[in-house]
Amino acid sequence: xxxxxxxxxxxxxxxxxxxKDTPQAAYIAGGTTLLDLMKAHLEEHPQxxxxxxxxxxxxxxxxxxxxxxxxxxxxxxGEHPLVVQQYPAVSQSLLLAASPQLRNMASIGGNLLQRxxxxxxxDPAFPCNKRVPGSGCPALEGDNHxxxxxxxxxxxxxxxxxxxxxxxxxxxxxxxxxENPKGKQRRVPLxxxxxxxxxxxxxxxxxxxxxxxxxxxxxxxxHATRSTYLKVRERSSYAYALASAAVGLDVQxxxxxxxxxxxxxxxxxxxxxxxxxxxxxxxxxxxATFRAAAAAAVQGARPREHNRFKxxxxxxxxxxxxxxxx
Length: 326
Ligand SMILES: Cc1cc2nc3c(=O)[nH]c(=O)nc-3n(C[C@H](O)[C@H](O)[C@H](O)COP(=O)(O)OP(=O)(O)OC[C@H]3O[C@@H](n4cnc5c(N)ncnc54)[C@H](O)[C@@H]3O)c2cc1C
Ligand code: SF4
Description:
By secondary structure, the protein is α+β, with helices and mostly antiparallel strands. Helices cover 30% and strands 21% of the residues. Flavin-adenine dinucleotide binds at residues 26-34, 51, 70, 74, 97-98, 102, 105-107, 109-111, 113-114, 163-165, 212-213, 238, 240.
């Protein structure tokens, strides 16, 4: 790990001011992913700015929906009664992620900014367009069994966001509140926050230099209350998703009034499927409808040699999740 200085910030202004003075600095919340990246020399920062004293806390009901502070821990949010009752899929996405120890340390904001688990990205011995633009992508012809099939490009086929929470947030129209070094706040829908790789896989989000994630707001909706997050992984103790589905349905008299669908583990970004939602809306809540929605969700998939199985796995995961909430 490179040498770095460490400082605690008491206010957002102090944190962003310090970041402005040292542009290569990084904020640190739980540190559960940042320190790993630094130890592996995948990221080098001359200064870490500890943001744990900032008042980005609390889970509260507002007129816009449920507002979750970015520094709340994954455990606290996953177990919070308002989240469990109003957004079961969000709660489940958090409680199925990582291990209990990690969830106790890790923050909501840090979770949204974790980086890909592509093995070539994580091993500096290999070239990688995401790490060093223009250097190449060994995953295209190499081991790509855990990489993405939707939204990929010839430059990168990684799941840039490999985690769980953002998949549920993408399904339920969550909005992020961000604050920049000038003290200005802006709101960005989660579905606009992550960028597709295109020719610039090193640009992963719309976050500007020094910008902080302050909070996440999720609007209330009947389909969010009747929701689930289903995660398929290689071991049940803890592992990232090979495929996952966050779904919510508002069903009345056997007909689906509104539907929300997002897939994880298969997209270059958390994959909201408006195509699947279109098939589901107004249709009977039957297995035939769910199968048609699943087929729509993987339209345009571009699998490679080792991740072809994900086309079928993603569909089966989605059908099972829809059956659970129907
Ligand atoms: C073994 C292991 C297994 C895991 N399994 C899963 C899993 O199955 N599913 C899953 O979803 N995740 C998984 N994770 C990832 C884990 O959820 C993340 O490490 C954690 O959520 C990161 O949160 P943190 O607060 O520790 O972030 P940090 O490590 O402190 O920060 C991460 C990044 O976010 C930035 N940052 C943090 N907070 C803010 C903020 N408020 N504003 C702006 N920037 C900020 C930091 O500068 C840094 O770049 C796993 C991690 C490990 C180590
Ligand atoms: S898939 Fe993306 S992250 Fe993985 S090696 Fe290729 S460019 Fe790098």
